[in-house]
Design brief:
CATH superfamily: Ribosome hibernation promotion factor-like
CATH class: Alpha Beta
Strand order of the largest sheet: 1-2-3-4
Largest sheet: 4 strands, mixed
Order of helices and strands: EHEEEH
Shape: elongated
Radius of gyration: 14 Å
Length: 104
Amino acid sequence: MKIQFNTDNHIDGNDALESRVNAMLEQHLGRFFPRLSRLEVFLSDSNSTKGGPNDKRCALEARLQNDEPIGASHDDADVEKAIRGACDKLKTLLDSRIEKQRGY
Protein backbone atom coordinates (compact mmCIF):
# COMPACT_ATOMS: atom_id res chain seq x y z
CA MET A 1 0.00 0.00 0.00
CA LYS A 2 1.33 3.40 -0.99
CA ILE A 3 0.81 6.59 1.04
CA GLN A 4 1.09 9.76 -1.01
CA PHE A 5 1.67 12.90 1.09
CA ASN A 6 0.91 16.42 -0.25
CA THR A 7 0.75 19.90 1.25
CA ASP A 8 -0.09 23.31 -0.10
CA ASN A 9 2.49 26.11 -0.12
CA HIS A 10 1.37 27.35 3.34
CA ILE A 11 2.26 24.15 5.20
CA ASP A 12 5.84 22.95 5.48
CA GLY A 13 5.64 19.33 4.35
CA ASN A 14 8.90 18.28 6.02
CA ASP A 15 9.91 14.71 6.88
CA ALA A 16 8.91 15.13 10.55
CA LEU A 17 5.35 16.12 9.59
CA GLU A 18 5.13 13.28 7.08
CA SER A 19 6.26 10.79 9.75
CA ARG A 20 3.65 12.13 12.21
CA VAL A 21 0.94 11.90 9.58
CA ASN A 22 1.94 8.34 8.65
CA ALA A 23 1.86 7.33 12.33
CA MET A 24 -1.62 8.85 12.75
CA LEU A 25 -2.86 7.07 9.61
CA GLU A 26 -1.48 3.78 10.90
CA GLN A 27 -3.15 4.31 14.26
CA HIS A 28 -6.58 5.27 12.89
CA LEU A 29 -6.76 3.38 9.59
CA GLY A 30 -4.15 0.63 9.91
CA ARG A 31 -6.69 -2.17 9.95
CA PHE A 32 -7.73 -1.19 6.41
CA PHE A 33 -4.17 -1.13 4.99
CA PRO A 34 -4.28 -4.74 3.67
CA ARG A 35 -7.39 -3.83 1.60
CA LEU A 36 -6.01 -0.53 0.25
CA SER A 37 -3.79 -0.01 -2.76
CA ARG A 38 -3.25 3.71 -2.11
CA LEU A 39 -3.97 6.39 0.47
CA GLU A 40 -3.50 10.03 -0.49
CA VAL A 41 -3.20 12.84 2.07
CA PHE A 42 -3.50 16.54 1.26
CA LEU A 43 -2.97 19.15 3.98
CA SER A 44 -3.82 22.79 3.40
CA ASP A 45 -4.11 26.07 5.27
CA SER A 46 -6.85 28.29 3.88
CA ASN A 47 -5.82 31.49 5.67
CA SER A 48 -2.02 31.20 5.49
CA THR A 49 -0.50 33.49 8.13
CA LYS A 50 -3.81 35.08 9.20
CA GLY A 51 -4.92 32.18 11.40
CA GLY A 52 -8.50 31.68 12.41
CA PRO A 53 -10.88 28.94 13.40
CA ASN A 54 -11.03 25.82 11.25
CA ASP A 55 -8.50 27.06 8.69
CA LYS A 56 -6.52 23.81 8.46
CA ARG A 57 -7.88 21.08 6.18
CA CYS A 58 -6.99 17.45 5.76
CA ALA A 59 -8.39 15.66 2.74
CA LEU A 60 -7.92 11.90 2.46
CA GLU A 61 -8.54 9.68 -0.54
CA ALA A 62 -8.37 5.91 -0.18
CA ARG A 63 -8.47 3.42 -3.00
CA LEU A 64 -9.71 -0.01 -2.04
CA GLN A 65 -8.24 -2.73 -4.22
CA ASN A 66 -10.41 -3.19 -7.33
CA ASP A 67 -12.78 -0.38 -6.35
CA GLU A 68 -13.38 3.32 -6.91
CA PRO A 69 -11.61 5.85 -4.67
CA ILE A 70 -13.39 7.11 -1.59
CA GLY A 71 -12.63 10.41 0.10
CA ALA A 72 -13.21 12.43 3.25
CA SER A 73 -12.04 15.79 4.54
CA HIS A 74 -12.15 17.73 7.79
CA ASP A 75 -11.43 21.35 8.72
CA ASP A 76 -10.15 22.25 12.18
CA ALA A 77 -8.00 24.70 14.13
CA ASP A 78 -4.77 22.69 13.80
CA VAL A 79 -3.34 20.10 11.46
CA GLU A 80 -3.44 17.16 13.87
CA LYS A 81 -7.11 17.71 14.72
CA ALA A 82 -7.91 18.01 11.01
CA ILE A 83 -6.13 14.71 10.33
CA ARG A 84 -7.96 12.95 13.18
CA GLY A 85 -11.32 14.25 11.97
CA ALA A 86 -10.67 13.18 8.37
CA CYS A 87 -9.50 9.74 9.57
CA ASP A 88 -12.67 9.27 11.61
CA LYS A 89 -14.86 10.17 8.63
CA LEU A 90 -12.90 7.96 6.25
CA LYS A 91 -13.01 5.06 8.71
CA THR A 92 -16.81 5.26 8.74
CA LEU A 93 -16.96 5.37 4.94
CA LEU A 94 -14.56 2.45 4.55
CA ASP A 95 -16.50 0.35 7.05
CA SER A 96 -19.68 1.03 5.10
CA ARG A 97 -18.09 0.29 1.70
CA ILE A 98 -16.52 -2.97 2.91
CA GLU A 99 -19.78 -4.06 4.52
CA LYS A 100 -21.63 -3.47 1.22
CA GLN A 101 -19.02 -5.49 -0.66
CA ARG A 102 -19.51 -8.40 1.74
CA GLY A 103 -23.28 -8.26 1.19
CA TYR A 104 -22.98 -9.08 -2.51
